[in-house]
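ok so I'm stuck.
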Amino acid sequence: MELPDSLKLAVSQLTKIPGVGEKTALRQILTICRWNPEELDVLGKSLSQLSGLKSCTQCGFYCDENLCQVCKEEGRNNTGIVCVVESVTDFIAIERSETFKGTYHILGGVLNPLLGIGPDELKIPQFVERVKRKGINELILAVNPSVEGDATCSYIHQEVPESVEVERIGFGIPMGGNLEYLDSMTISKALENKKRLNK
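replied:
not stuck anymore, here's the structure
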């Protein structure tokens, strides 16, 4: 059966979302087709406005201005503690645990020379400069446990000044697990059981 072009276009765009196949996308689009014109208009405008999103100049999270809501909080900036995470979803997962009260740095990935991802691609030199400039005294490396994640943590640990206390998030999660899929209690316990890395 041949679908109308407008339906096919909407389905093809939705399948670009990870984990959404063609059948799921079609089912969702057919549900949206039953919405009234006003609801469709709001959805369209909200999606269109995503193109105007910025990245926080300090941590890399999404924001409408230069700084995100977390980095705007003076109290959190004054803690001198930064939690380094791999992705935006990891940032959100830790924030939902309501355990961490410092600021963040989102790497946007992990070191992987085979894929051409080095320190510059992750903006690690800029982060090290931030640590020095802001007088950060503690780092919590909340990077997912993997060979690449371990290598990334070791590299950051070697690059920051020796005066900075560097700790790795506690491991109560399986190798290859992702922070975004963990419940708040597991994340809270992992933060409580963080450990210091020795040079």
